[in-house]
Amino acid sequence: MTIKSLSLLAATLWFSISPSVAQDFNFQEILPEHFDKANIIEEEDYNVWGTNILKGKDGKYHAIYSRWPKGRGHHGWVTHSEIAHAVSDKLTGPYVFKNLVLPARGKDFWDGDCTHNPTSWSTMESTIYTTWATAAAVIGTRLQTITCHRLSTKSGG
Q1: How far does CA 84 lie from the centroid of its chain?
Q2: What is the CATH number of the domain that holds 83?
Q3: Between 143 and 7, where is the model more confident?
Q4: Is residue 10 part of a domain?
Q5: Which of 8, 17, 38, 119 gives 94 a disulfide partner, CB atoms 3.0 to 4.6 angstroms apart?
Q6: Phi, psi of 15 (to 5 degrees)
Q7: Domain of 10, in residue numbers
Q8: Are 132 and 103 in contact (CB under 8 A)?
Q9: How many CB atoms neighbour CB 122 within 10 A?
Q10: d(C-alpha 48, C-alpha 155), whole Å
């Protein structure tokens, strides 16, 4: 993890614990100097949500995110969300779709109705792991089951 990534992580954790500190922090200082549409992960026919970006051993930036067809409307994520992977040479993009990691598999599978909100991390060996939320298990008011899915082992991508 880079120093800037660690700083951002530390700031996020601190501000989630202490909201009074967050109001005095200037988030503009950690944003890219130039921000335009190339910085946004966007797909013409899909809504995109919950992007996680990791720098791979290959030196490229790998984005893992949820997406669902725009034709299904905003609430289509509940039944048609899938996990996708895009790659960029720069952290700020542009990102190009590479592959579908987890498709919407349908109600016959325990996680088939909702593969959404991915959270990704990598190991020292550049293995990328992803967890995702699913509507398959409802425990009280919590609507989340965490599952670990191995995306890559050798190439880091």
Answers
A1: 9
A2: 2.115.10.20
A3: 7
A4: yes
A5: 38
A6: -70, -25
A7: 1-31
A8: no
A9: 18
A10: 25
